[in-house]
Amino acid sequence: MCFACFVCFGFGVQAEGLCDGTPDSIGVYPLQVSARFTVNLIFRYRVAQVDIGSGDVMGRKMGKAENVLLLKAAKSGFPATNVSVYLEDGRLYSFLVSYADSVGVLNLSFGADSVSSGGGLPLPRARIVGWPVPRDSMEADSRRVAAVRGFMHDRTSSGGVELALRGVYLRDSVLWMAFRGRNFSRVAFKPDRIRFFVEDRRKLRRTATQTVEWKPVFDGAPSVLVGRVAWGVGFVPKALPRGKRLVILWSGGDDGRAVRLVVKGRRILRARVL
Question: Residue 48 belongs to what H/E stretch?
């Protein structure tokens, strides 16, 4: 095996001509950094690894943002050096970094095959992992969960109202439950709330059943149910303790109708990444 092929298989760098004996040239981006300003590099995918050619340049990821790299000069007037950024999709971005007292461009956005300097163009949002999760992100994820074709069929009905659990998903550090409600009657169902609580799977005689409320971080349940509606409810990801089950109580307001759905702990463990 030729050395070029060994490099290709060993590092997985995306350079189309690398393994046919004719190496392709990977473009190098000129970049200026300063000791007084921080330059933000925003990539399309998560930053997997960073290599900085000199200690004169400082680089780190921005907190819990997985696709943002911060660069700053460690001292003034340093000689030019390079920075290599490897993304989780296998892409390599190479930068030739030089010093400048005043930096004209502070934000660089790297899309699929282009680069934007932020000159009036919207930059992609930093993808955040962990907590807190932005409210608008959860709203969008709730709509997406509601639109996905489900893979679960847990359901119950009472008083002409049906509640079904269609699936459990993980997205953007949130555990999502996809529900569908159906009202078979001509009278609108106006639930005042939907509760989630964990209780013992087996009720022992003469022993009070202890329940622990599971509070959602996002609740997309409708305030009025007419016909059929789908929605998503988000939680901090966690599994049910052994011997416990999740009870979902969807109770009405004026007419007193209520639907109670019991979900086993192993259903939560079947969550799919969305």
Answer: strand 47-52
The residue among 171, 176, 178 whose CA lies nearest residue 150 is 178
Integer Cα distance of 172 and 263 in angstroms: 23
Among 83, 40, 84, CA closest to 62: 40
Contact 215, 197 (CB under 8 A): no
Q: What is the pLDDT of residues 152-182, one digit of tens each?
A: 999 999 989 999 999 999 988 889 999 999 9
For 230-266, how does the pLDDT look when each residue is reduced to its tens digit (9 = 90+)? Answer: 999 999 888 888 888 999 999 876 778 899 999 998 8
Q: What is the CATH classification number for the domain harbouring 198? A: 2.60.40
Amino acid at 21: G
Residue 53 CB coordination number (10 Å): 14
Quote the domain boundaries for residue 31: 25-116
Report the distance separating Cα 125 and Cα 88, nearest Å. 17
Quick one: 88 and 178 in the same domain? no
Beta carbons of 83 and 29 less than 8 angstroms apart: no
